[in-house]
Design goal:
Blueprint lengths: L4 E7 L5 H14 L4 E5 L5 H11 L8 H25 L3 E5 L2 H11 L4 H12 L6 E6 L2 H6 L16 H17 L3 E5 L4 H17 L33 H5 L19 E3 L4
Parallel strand pairs: 1-3, 1-4, 2-3, 4-5, 5-6
Length: 271
């Protein structure tokens, strides 16, 4: 069984990430991977109900702090009931938006404290982090023009002003400069060229993913548990004794918890 790996797709409105994530899911399935295609907010019955509140244009007056807490509540349910089980059974998880979206939209867009948002993100996701992120970058005005055919029931953010979406784009770009896992995709490229470059990057990433025998991740294992007679494995970076004692010891060997940070990669046109 392959180790589980979490790959996220991020970007502003109308950037084309949802179209590409579906194509990538079909491509991976043809190659024999077990794939979970999911999204945020949503992914579970409870998270989907929270999604209807967050994206309904009738709820434009939601306070930014309440908005943040609703996103984190939906994410907690999603992580516990969809992401973790899939990763522990060795699936490739493709998620349409994750924690980066909260930093970009609620942090840079709404003006909430980014350290506060990151604290909440860590609290609800635990050790689950993306191994690879594709950021679809597109001028905000161009992206908004592409959203005119969307369902009117999920147009709450599209009705925000252009300045809001410019701040969101700036936030994503700031994240891309700091996080090595983020690959920037030029959303203005033809869809087929975008898909080609994404799959090219994925082939390299999946080729480096470690493999393990089926018995190394027992059925039903969860964080904080281990099978009788087994030796638990640490899955965090070694930072010091006091730090290690404060974290859980879990059974599965996991390749979906990256720890390196640095400049992002770019697959923009002409670079």
């Amino acid at each position: 069984m392959r180790d589980g790996i979490l790959i996220t797709f991020e970007g502003g409105e109308g950037a084309g990430k949802t179209t590409q994530i579906r194509r990538v899911a079909r491509w991976l399935k043809k190659k024999g991977y077990s794939v979970l295609l999911t999204r945020e907010p949503g992914g579970t019955p409870l998270a989907d109900r929270i999604r209807t509140i967050l994206l309904n244009p009738k709820n434009l007056g939601i306070h930014p702090v309440l908005e943040l807490l609703l996103y984190e509540a939906a994410r907690k349910d999603h992580v516990d009931h969809r992401l973790l089980p899939a990763l522990l059974r060795g699936a490739v998880v493709l998620c349409d938006r994750f924690t980066d979206a909260t930093v970009a939209y609620q942090g840079y867009g709404r003006g909430l404290s980014i350290p506060l948002i990151k604290t909440w993100n860590r609290a609800v996701t635990g050790l689950v982090k993306p191994r690879l992120t594709f950021l679809f970058d597109l001028p905000a005005r161009t992206g908004l023009k592409r959203t005119v055919k969307r369902s009117p029931r999920e147009m709450r953010f599209e009705r925000e002003g252009l300045a809001f979406h410019e701040r969101v784009r700036h936030g994503y770009r700031q994240l891309a400069r700091r996080e090595r896992r983020i690959t920037v995709v030029d959303g203005r490229l033809p869809p087929q060229e975008v898909f080609r470059r994404i799959t090219q990057r994925l082939e390299k990433a999946l080729g480096r993913t470690r493999f393990c025998r089926k018995s190394s991740i027992p059925t039903g294992s969860r964080p904080g548990t281990s099978s009788p007679g087994s030796t638990p494995r640490r899955i965090w970076p070694r930072r010091g004794r006091s730090h290690r004692r404060s974290l859980r010891v879990v059974r599965p060997t996991s390749s979906f918890f990256p720890h390196r940070r640095g400049p992002s990669r770019s697959i923009r046109s002409g670079r």
